[in-house]
Amino acid sequence: MENIAFDSHRRYTLCSVADGTGRILQEARIDHASGALSGFLRRWTRGSPVAVETIGNWYWIVDEIEQAGMVPRLVHARKAKLMIGNVNKTDRLDARGLNQLQRAGTLPTVWIPPGELRDQRDLARTRMYLVHQRTCLKNRIHATLARYALAVPGVRDPFGKRARSGLDQQVMRLPECTRFATQQQLAQLGSLETAIHQLDERIKVVFVETQTARLLQTMPGVGLWLGVVIMLEVGDVDRFAGPEKLASYAGTTPRVHSSGGHTRYGSLRSDVNRYLKWAYVEAANSIALNCAHHPERHTSQLYQRLLHRKGYAKAIGAVARHLAEATFWILHKQQPYQDPAFGHVSPTDAPARCSHESLVDSRNDCDRRLKQNHAPPRAKR
Q1: First to last CA, the chain
Q2: How many percent of the chain have pLDDT more than 70?
Q3: DSSP-assigned beta bridge partners for residue 13
Q4: Stated pTM of the model
Q5: What is the DSSP letter of 114?
Q6: Helix 115-147 × helix 274-289 angle, to 10°
Q7: Alpha-carbon distance values, 377 to 319, 324, 329, 356, 380 (Å)
Q8: DSSP 109
Q9: Within 10 Å of residue 122's Cβ, how many Cβ atoms?
Q10: What pLDDT is attached to residue 208?
Q11: Beta bridge partners of 264
Q12: Residue 372 predicted with pLDDT over 80
């Protein structure tokens, strides 16, 4: 088999084909068109690996690679660039570098979601984008009213149905041009509300009967909407070696700086699945808002304990990590969430219990106790 690498851009792809010894067999620039990439690949041995970086339009490129009977290998672009280590950067050097990593067996690849999952993800991701746009519009309208010392009295949400008439009255008091601009924003806000509602209905139709979504909703702070986001972004949970890997992928683990016996933990990582990170942080914020109503829960106790010691941001991060690690065991075992604060955990659930406690105790200490006693640590009350 040959090693094939793509350096793809918006309108063209540079293809580099090399044999097992690294000898270049052919290099060609292919303009993007339907069937162009698959037609080029059919000239080579069926089943050969094809490396392509995670660029914005990799969906259809992977589809064409599979149509040609080849094996797509989706590359982590940032890690590959560091591993190639070229001083100069050209399309040809990038493609050749990917082939060198393939031949050495060190190509940093990432998981390729199935086509159906990629399609379903657009529902959740589009809703998140529209909600963000809605928030931006509301903030602009708030800021416009504040510039002229205007507010809707007696209401917490001036955009609610009951307060809308009062909001319109305040808008009419704005200067002429500002009033016209604000009315346009209100009209756009109404369109966004309609689109978000339609997406919500579609999501309910597609996912409300999904067993995985129902299991994820057993976690505190997670409803149908967040459960769907987590389910779609995690995908196949068996691709993660353990709960720590899922927590890292979700961006709920802090950066670690350790040298000379001194260890410092920084902020949560940013080069992660930002959709999944957002979902866990949203769930953690919901837990923080309602912890007074459920003080007996492990997540509430964890939040309150770290809130006083480390501050709000780190407390939210710890709760988000707990939810991420719990997600691994929920999906891996296909069982509802088990709150560590309640009852006794059987020895068969020791790994799951250890992952929960790792947010409170150090992981090394927990592993040592498991090896010595062959039993999970006692639940903290």
Answers
A1: 59
A2: 90
A3: 8, 30
A4: 0.81
A5: -
A6: 60
A7: 19, 20, 17, 10, 9
A8: B
A9: 11
A10: 81
A11: 257
A12: no
Question: At CB < 8 A and 24+ separation, what contacts does 289-298 make?
Answer: 290/221, 294/220, 296/341, 296/342, 297/220, 297/339, 297/341, 298/322, 298/339, 298/340, 298/341, 298/356, 298/380
| 249, 251, 255, 256 alpha-carbon torsion, rounded to 10° | -50
Residues 173-231: pLDDT tens digits? Answer: 999 999 999 999 999 999 999 999 999 999 999 998 789 999 999 999 999 999 999 99
Q: Are 3 and 102 in contact (CB under 8 A)?
A: yes
278 to 132, 141, 243, 275, 362: CA distances (angstroms): 12, 25, 18, 5, 25
Which has the minimum average pLDDT: 90-104, 150-164, 242-256, 289-303? 150-164
| Range list of H helices, the chain | 36-41, 58-67, 77-84, 91-104, 115-147, 164-172, 176-207, 211-216, 224-234, 243-249, 274-289, 298-310, 312-333, 350-357, 363-373
> Tokens 């010894």 belong to which residue?
21
pLDDT single digits (tens) 185-197: 999 999 999 999 9
The CA angle 64-67-73, to the nearest 5 degrees, is 60
The Cα 233–Cα 236 span in angstroms is: 9
Q: Which residue do the tokens 């997540």 mark?
A: 299
The CATH code belonging to domain 3-104 is: 3.30.420.140
Q: What is the distance between the alpha carbons of residues 370 and 368, in angstroms, rounded to a whole number?
A: 5
In this predicted structure, what is the pLDDT of residue 373?
A: 38
Residues facing residue 113 across a β-bridge: none
